[in-house]
Specification:
Blueprint (H helix, E strand, L loop, with lengths): L1 H6 L1 H8 L8 H10 L6 E5 L4 E2 L6 E2 L3 E11 L4 E11 L2 E8 L12 H16 L6 E6 L4 E6 L2 H20 L10 H5 L3 H4 L1 H7 L17 E5 L5 E5 L2 E6 L2 E7 L3 E7 L3 E2 L1 H9 L4 E4 L5 E5 L7 H12 L1 H26 L6 H16 L3 H18 L8 H10 L9 H24 L17 H7 L3 H14 L8 E4 L2 E4 L1 H16 L1 E3 L6 E3 H16 L13
Parallel strand pairs: 6-7, 9-13, 10-14, 13-15
Antiparallel strand pairs: 1-4, 2-3, 4-5, 5-6, 7-8, 10-11, 11-12, 15-16, 17-18, 19-20
Helix pairs in contact: 4-5, 11-12, 11-13, 11-17, 12-13, 15-16, 15-17, 15-18, 15-19, 17-18
The structure holds iron/sulfur cluster.
Length: about 550
């Protein structure tokens, strides 16, 4: 961690204090290279006899190498796992394995690596060994760089150690680096959001687009009754009895969604949980039963702050106002952009006024009132966007928005889309470290993912309603995809399958972020929003404003 702290104090804090970790190409390659030294063991390497300088005699002694040596020292406050300790006669040296090539810099290596190997040397000294130097072995160029533990390096190492401990004690996230090239190679950039944070704090510098390694991973839905998901090598395979229905590469799966009577083998659970990919359990109708994930996120501080903010009416109100104003703004823009000329003009001003009033409201019930009023105006004109299915449009116009049960195909689609959106947001909240059941606008209620419902508000029109209207207008969904029973209308399994395809396409759709200016998929926007809310709650960002389109 000392290495990371010298590289970037924020990186060390995120990993060490907030429990964040993410792989990128560099870290994956690093773990592969490390595999050979991560096994505890030793070996004697025979060496050519060397001449003793004083006696002139040749004395052969082997070079003893100890792999993966764990040492700690309370006085130094250090724990380390040393890749290799070489004992060469009277000399003891720590060897730190690096995956890349030796950098051609003045001291033979950069400070983070030099400090790290020096800290290992200090530990060896504390255990009674004479240790004046260490080695950095660069596997990429197969070169060893000797690092002398001179006074200057020892002073730098102990000073950095003290600073790291102080940062962790103060529990204050250090600021991001300023437009640093280090961020481009940093695996935590998509979590840290260095440029976005600086931009929102007023830097004026447009953020760079630093993407996560698994940007193109998607949920794998399985809804064939009786199907079984198995793991084979690097793939997930779906079987119905002996018949293979399909397969997907694990690295391209962001989460496994099991709908209804579908199961998965133990190997699938183990593999996905180890990789931090959740398994989501839904009823066959799309109702969220639960999420299987690894251990809860280590960022306890975030959950503590979430509870504090949820208990504070003023803080909750500020977030609720921003959420509802963004939702109404996006509803208005969605209508304006997609309706035929003149079809929705009479409600646009009303929705805009409701958004403005929600933003100024001094009570959360008043916010709800403005949301309800604006929402009624919005749904009263939503049918105008349906161009290719008069029957669907007329039935929705007659029914209005109906939920339990939905009484027409458009309402059935909207309800299904909102539950899919809530499921998506629930997993995002969990992955960022929030409790998805504790919200700021939606009051806590048994089994209701209130925070997920809060955060999805602004995206109902942009992702759910948009996917519904598009699926109808493109003819992907028609009357044959619904069943009607006792006044309730629901999607058939085939209809659900078709709609989920449209919905996932919508989440993968890239838009230009209205604030950050780069292209970004909605799925990634969700994570960014969730992280920005976390930064707001933890005090790094003064405000939280959900995304609104232009
Ligand atoms: S992205 Fe940049 S600022 Fe953020 S942790 Fe990495 S190196 Fe530090």
């Amino acid at each position: 961690m000392l290495n990371e702290f010298v590289y970037c104090p924020r990186l060390a804090f995120l990993e060490w204090v907030e429990g964040e970790f993410a792989h990128n190409a560099d870290t994956v390659e690093g773990s592969i290279r490390h595999a050979s030294v991560d096994r505890v063991g030793f070996r004697n390497r025979p060496r050519r006899a060397e001449r003793d300088e004083t006696s002139g005699e040749r004395a052969a002694f082997p070079l003893l190498q100890l792999r993966s040596v764990e040492l700690s020292d309370p006085a130094l406050g250090l724990v380390a796992k040393i890749d290799l300790v070489e004992i060469d006669g009277g000399r003891v040296q720590p060897v730190d394995l690096k995956k890349g090539k030796r950098p051609h810099v003045e001291r033979g290596a950069y400070d983070p690596e030099r400090v790290q190997v020096c800290a290992q040397g200090l530990l060896l000294r504390a255990h009674g060994y004479a240790c004046d130097s260490g080695v950095l072995y660069f596997a990429g160029s197969n070169e060893r760089v000797q690092v002398d533990f001179d006074d200057e390096l020892v002073a730098l190492t102990t000073a950095q150690l003290a600073e790291l401990r102080a940062a962790a004690r103060e529990l204050t996230l250090p600021p991001p680096l300023d437009a640093s090239p280090k961020c481009v190679r940093c695996s935590l950039a998509p979590i840290c959001l260095p440029d976005e944070t600086r931009f929102l704090c007023g830097s004026g510098q447009p953020p760079r687009r630093l993407l996560p390694a698994d940007e193109h991973a998607y949920p794998l839905y399985v809804q064939q009754p009786g199907a079984l998901v198995r793991k084979k090598d690097e793939t997930l395979q779906v079987f119905d009895g002996d018949e293979k229905l399909g397969e997907a590469r694990i690295r391209e799966v962001s989460q496994l969604v099991l709908m209804g009577r579908v199961s998965a083998t133990e190997a699938v659970y183990q593999e996905l949980l180890q990789r931090g990919k959740p398994i989501v359990h839904l009823s066959s109708g799309g109702w969220l039963y639960g999420v299987t994930q690894g251990l809860p996120h280590a960022n306890v501080r975030l959950r503590q702050e979430q509870v504090r903010a949820a208990d504070d009416p003023a803080r909750s109100l500020r977030i609720a106002r921003a959420i509802v104003a963004a939702k109404l703004t996006n509803q208005r823009i969605f209508l304006r952009r997609n309706a035929p000329d003149g079809a929705v003009d009479d409600v646009l001003a009303g929705i805009r006024n409701a958004a403005g009033a929600a933003e100024r409201a001094t009570d959360v019930d008043v916010v709800r009132g403005h949301e309800g009023y604006g929402g009624r105006l919005y749904f009263s004109r939503l049918a105008a966007l349906i161009r290719s299915n008069r029957e669907f449009a007329e039935r929705f116009e007659a029914e209005g928005r109906t939920r339990r049960p939905p009484r027409d195909p458009v309402n059935a689609l909207l309800s299904f889309a909102y539950s899919a959106l809530a499921r998506e947001w629930t997993t995002v909240c969990l992955s960022v470290g929030f409790d998805p059941f504790l919200g700021f606008y939606h009051a806590p209620r048994y089994a209701r993912p209130s925070l997920a419902l809060d955060l999805m508000e602004a995206f109902r029109p942009l992702c759910a309603d948009s996917a519904v209207i598009r699926a109808i207008n493109n003819g992907e969904i028609g009357s044959a995809d619904f069943v009607e029973r006792m006044g309730s209308v629901n999607l058939t399994p085939a209809g659900r399958r078709k709609f989920l395809r449209s919905f996932e396409q919508r989440l993968g759709h890239e838009v230009t972020h209205p604030v950050f200016g780069y292209r970004i998929s909605y799925r990634r926007v969700f994570e960014v929003e969730c992280r920005l809310l976390a930064r707001h709650l933890l005090g790094e960002l003064a405000t939280f404003r959900p995304m609104t389109t232009r």
